[in-house]
Amino acid sequence: MRALAAEGAFQALAQGLGEAYLGAFALLLGAGGMALGLVATLPTASTSLAQVLARRARAGRGGARQLLARSWSAQAVGYALLGLCLLLPDPWPIPVLCLLALLAWGCGGITVPAWTALVCGVVPRARHGWFFGLRGAAQQAGVLAAILCGGALLSLMTARGLESLGFL
After folding, report:
1. Nearest C-alpha neighbor of 111 from the set 147, 150, 76
2. What's the pTM value of the predicted model, to 2 decimals?
3. Do the Cβ atoms of 104 and 86 come closer than 8 Å?
């Protein structure tokens, strides 16, 4: 159970390094006000919609484990491809950023109900409160660490004139 809680911290660290700095990355790419609004809201909306649709997806072929594997793989591809936005000519970086963020956050969102259902079957019912409390605390520590590490990295890279590399 502690390993599952630690997994939550690492998941939050990885996700926090992406989500917390998506707006800053969009600014680096030259996003204006409307684009920043879309970058700030569309990924969150896709996460919410994906969680609503997750029940139907889970009922599909392969069950929850297959859904998790496919969704996490697609999410990783979405995150990895975000760096390619730096190479695209105008006007493509911001629309591609929005599409990849929709993919990454949507795939992350669709996993939440399936993952929670699987873990509820592994963690004894009497320990649910303890486990989910510990995991929630570990996740928040991961988010804080991600924000601090990401900010330090961006500061370091900016001081060296390598802002773009701070996002990769």
Report:
1. 76
2. 0.82
3. no
